[in-house]
């Protein structure tokens, strides 16, 4: 599969090897260089700000039952931020640790 950067002009070297070295976090993968989702990736070097917000998700898209989730809001310079949704707090925290560690380097 050919992975494409969501930031035009901002790519990482050897995407295949980086993704292979990445860690699975629910439906996403994250490495020391990028976040992978839906056949695309966002280089960590493009991230300006990231935060975790508690939220809920209704699988049936109607009133009634909803499940608690955590949304990771990533601002990277586009008009709309990237929102990644995870079910477990520890997974949101793990992704944030990797993102924050990259920002300090």
What do you see in this structure?
- With 105 residues, the protein is an alpha+beta fold.
- It has one domain: Roll (PH-domain like), CATH 2.30.29.
- Helices cover 20% and strands 37% of the residues.
- It is built from two helices and eight strands, in the order E-H-E-E-E-E-E-E-E-H.
- The chain has helices at 15-20, 89-103, and strands spanning 4-5, 23-25, 28-30, 34-37, 40-43, 49-57, 67-75, 82-86.
- A hairpin with a 2-residue loop joins strand 2 (23-25) and strand 3 (28-30).
- The longest helix is centred in the C-terminal third of the chain and has 15 residues, at 89-103.
Mean pLDDT: 91
Instruction: Please give the CATH class.
Output: Mainly Beta
Q: What is the oligomer described by this structure?
A: single chain
Strand content: 35-45%
Could you give the distance between the termini? 30 Å
Describe the structure using short key phrases.
3-stranded antiparallel beta sheet; 8 strands; alpha+beta; 105 residues; 5-stranded mixed beta sheet; 20% helix
Summarize the model shown:
This protein has 105 residues and is α+β, with helices and mostly antiparallel strands. The chain has helices at 15-20, 89-103, and strands spanning 4-5, 23-25, 28-30, 34-37, 40-43, 49-57, 67-75, 82-86.
Task: List the SSEs and their pairings.
Blueprint: E1 4-5, H1 15-20, E2 23-25, E3 28-30, E4 34-37, E5 40-43, E6 49-57, E7 67-75, E8 82-86, H2 89-103
Parallel strand pairs: 1-5
Antiparallel strand pairs: 2-3, 3-4, 4-5, 6-7, 7-8
């Amino acid at each position: 599969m050919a992975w494409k950067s969501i930031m035009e002009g901002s790519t990482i070297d050897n995407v295949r090897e980086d993704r292979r070295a990445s860690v699975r976090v629910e439906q996403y993968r994250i490495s020391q260089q990028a976040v992978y989702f839906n056949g695309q990736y966002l280089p960590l070097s493009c991230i300006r700000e990231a935060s975790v917000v508690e939220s809920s998700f209704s699988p049936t898209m109607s009133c009634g039952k909803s499940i608690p989730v955590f949304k990771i809001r990533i601002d990277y310079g586009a008009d709309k931020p990237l929102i990644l949704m995870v079910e477990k707090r520890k997974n949101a925290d793990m992704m944030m640790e990797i993102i924050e560690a990259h920002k300090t380097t």
